[in-house]
Amino acid sequence: MSALIACGALLQRDVRAVLRSRSQLYSSILFPLILLAILGAGVSEGLDPDPALVRDGDYASFLVPGIIAMAVLFSSTFSSASYYQDRDSGLLRVLFASPHSPRVILMGKGLAGVTIGSLQALAVLAVAAAIPAIDLEWQYGFVPSLLLAVAAVLLLALLLNGFAQVVASRIRTMQGFHLVMNLVLFPLLFFSGAFFPLEDLPTWLKVLATANPLSYAVDLLRTAVYADGSGYFGLPLDVAVLATLAAAAFLWGIGRRPAYQQ
User: 23 in a domain, yes or no?
Assistant: First the structure.
C-alpha cells in the first residue's frame, strides 16, 4: 500500500509540474496540430494523393493517427527529461534514499510520463475530431473505436516511456538523452506509416516498417479512427505486438538503475 501511495504522489507531482509549465504543455499539443493543418492541407491540395491509398484524396484525415503517435513521442521525450531535472536539483538522490525501492520510484515517474503523454495525445485526437474538414471513420462505432484508440495511445506511451527510461539509465546528460532519443525515434516515426501508406513501398522499407514497433501503434490507431478495413497488419497482430513490447519495455525501464546512481 505504501508503494502505491508513493507512486501516486510522484505521478501527481510530475503531472502538476507539466500543468504549471504552460510552454511545454501548449507546444506538445499545438505543434502536432499545426503540422496536421499545414502538411495535411498542403499534400491534399498540392499533390493530389491517390484515392486508392488515401480515402477521397483526403491526406489530412489520413494523417491524424500519425500525428497522435507523434504527440505521444514528443511528450514522452519531454516528460522523461524530469529525471535529469530531479537529479540536478538533488531530489532524485533524496527519493532513492527513501525506504522505497528504486523500482517504485521509477514506476511512479514512468506512470506520470504515460499519463501526460496519453492525455496530450488524446487532446490532439479530440481537437482533430472536432474539425469539420477532418473525416474520421470510427469504423467500429464511436465508443468502441474511441476505446481502441485510447488503448493504442496507452500502450504506445508505455512503450516509449519504458524506452526513454532505458536510455536515461545509460546517458548521463540531458543533451545526450535528447540527441539519442531524436536519433532513434524520429526515423522510426518516419517509416512507421505515420506519413504515408505502407502498401506500395519498396520491399526494404516494408521490412523496416514490419520490424518497427511504432508501425503497429500507427496501424492500430488508423484502424480505429480512420481506416475502413482491418489495417495493414491486422487488428489482432497490432494489439499482440504492441501490448507485448509495451509491457517488456516498461518493465525493463523501471528495472534499470540510473547511471547517475551506479
Answer: yes
Q: Specify if 262 maps to a domain.
A: no
Written as one string, the DSSP assignment of 53-112 is TSGGG-HHHHHHHHHHHHHHHHHHHHHHTHHHHHHHHTHHHHHHTSSS-HHHHHHHHHHH
Q: Is residue 260 part of a domain?
A: no
Radius of gyration over every alpha carbon of the chain, rounded to an integer in angstroms: 19
Number of domains in the chain: 1
- What domain range includes position 56? 2-254
Residue of 108, 101, 78 lying closest to 257 (CA atoms): 101
The candidate with the shortest Cα–Cα distance to 33, out of 110, 170, 102, 125, is 125
Of residues 117, 22, 134, 24, the one with CA closest to residue 71? 117
With left for phi above 0 and alpha for psi between -120 and 50, is residue 90 left, alpha or beta? left
**Beta-carbon count within 10 A of 129 CB:** 15
C-alpha cell at 94: 533524496
List, for residues 202-241, the tens digit of each pLDDT value: 888 889 999 999 999 999 999 999 876 778 888 999 999 9
Q: What is the pLDDT of residues 127-146, one digit of tens each?
A: 998 988 888 888 888 899 99
For cell 488508423, the residue is: 222
| Position 50 in a domain | yes
